[in-house]
Amino acid sequence: MTTRNEITTDRTVDEGAGRTGGTSQLTLLGVPFLIGATVAVTLGVYGGLHEPTGVAVNVGGFSSPQTVKVWLATGVAVLAVTQLLSALSMWGKLGSLAPSWAALVHRWSGRLAFLLAVPVAIHCLYALGFATYDLRVVAHGLLGCFFFGAFTVKMLALPKPGLPGWALPVLGGTVFTALIALWFTSSFWYFTTIGVTL
Amino acid sequence: MKPTPLLTLLGGVTLGAVVLALSVHATGGNDEPPVPAAAPTATAVAGASAAPSPSPTQTPINATWAGRLTAGTLAISVQDGVAVAYLCDGAAIEAWLQGTAAGGRLDLAGRAGETLSGTFGEGQASGQIKIDDQVLPFTVTAVTAPSGLYRAAATVRGAQVDGGWIVLADGTQVGLVTVDGIAQPAPPLDTATGRVTVDGDVLTPTRPRELS
């Protein structure tokens, strides 16, 4: 464990992170992982067991609940790209482009993205459920459960002191990748199959 | 500063609970006017915004087709590419299927492995439905409100009530209501008010084509 720490932490900004030994690292990340896994599995089981109603609350100004979801998810995807760029900047990966407000942008774009994503997920789970009629919807359902689990892990791990240096980039990257894949299996499919409608 | 990620999570959970509660309210025991009143606006908006846009591959067809087959009555509803189908004999057999309607093709599946595939246009939909290893060809024609497909899912005094109704063009109805897993022929739906009385409780089934 110690060797691996030394190898991985040399790339991080926070050189003081993660040196209290293997056991405490396991507990540091173990509890968030367990809770995140519980979130993912719970969402999946609910989606599978709940009889989809086909109906949920609508938001005014859109032609159908689906278009609401498609545009909310697109908003989340745009914010996710903001997340990626602000994170790269915070970790010094954009060279000199590292403004002091990058962390603030990262924090608030993340909060907003999460709050936009929640109603989408509720509509998916409540009105549509876990469907298996083609590969796209299977992938979308699994990714959706995974995304909220991974996001929970990231959020619970974030404030912990002494995290290994790779933890946040890996967790954040995982959350970002899952979200973009979710967008491609839903909104992108909708735009290319049904059309771009409000 | 440090515990804010936890607050973010809790905020999301709270928002989720609110949206879920609103959704439950929207589907169960609501006192809203019958849905058909809202339907024309919903479809008109979709049509109006889709028509002038040059990018869609085709203008989406939002419609419901219904008709009798040998094994029962079938209704298929399509709204913005999502298709819902209901096959019901009014006595014991029923199946809900869900899937896609894109490029003139229907592709749906049900929970017990039922599949429906076919083609659709404005006037009719045809294809085949596979249920219990039986393959049934179908051709169903477009119907307009108040004919169509209705669905109710509600919890009434602790019992889970699920119902499905198909109202054909001539006004005849076929439906099943399942109360806590036991299926019974559905009581008639009042298409004027959109309401139905199940075991003494008034429900307002929704029409998947307008709402899902």
Structure, explained:
The complex is a heterodimer of chains A (198) and B (212). With 198 residues, chain A is an all-alpha fold. Chain A contains six helices and no strands. Chain A has one domain. In chain A, helix 3 packs antiparallel against helix 4, helix 3 runs antiparallel to helix 6 (167-193) and helix 5 packs antiparallel against helix 6. Chain A is globular. Mean pLDDT of chain A is 81; it is low at 1-21. With 212 residues, chain B is of the alpha+beta class. Chain B has two domains: 22-34 and 147-211, no CATH class; 39-143, Porin. Chain B has helices spanning 4-27, 39-50, 208-211, and strands spanning 63-68, 73-79, 82-88, 94-102, 105-110, 115-120, 124-131, 134-143, 148-156, 159-167, 173-179, 182-185, 196-198, 201-203. In chain B, the strands form three sheets. Chain B has an eight-stranded antiparallel β-barrel with strand order 1-2-3-4-5-6-7-8. The longest helix of chain B has 24 residues, at 4-27. The interface between A and B is large, with 44 and 50 residues.
Strand order of the largest sheet of chain B: 1-2-3-4-5-6-7-8
CATH first level of the largest domain in chain B: Mainly Beta
Q: Which chains make the largest contact?
A: A-B, 44 and 50 residues
Question: Helicity of chain B, in percent?
Answer: 10-25%
Q: Give the total of beta strands of chain B.
A: 14
Total discrete domains of chain A = 1
Question: How many β-strand runs of chain A?
Answer: 0
Order of helix and strand elements from N to C terminus of chain A: HHHHHH
Overall CATH architecture of the largest domain in chain B: Beta Barrel
Radius of gyration of chain B: 19 Å
* Low-pLDDT segments of chain A: 1-21
Overall SS class of chain A: mainly alpha
Shape verdict of chain A: globular
CATH structural fold name of the largest domain in chain B: Porin
Outline of chain B, from the CA principal axes?
globular
Rg measurement of chain A, Å: 19 Å
Mean pLDDT of chain A: 81
Helix content of chain A: over 70%
Tell me what portion of residues of chain A adopts beta-strand conformation. under 5%
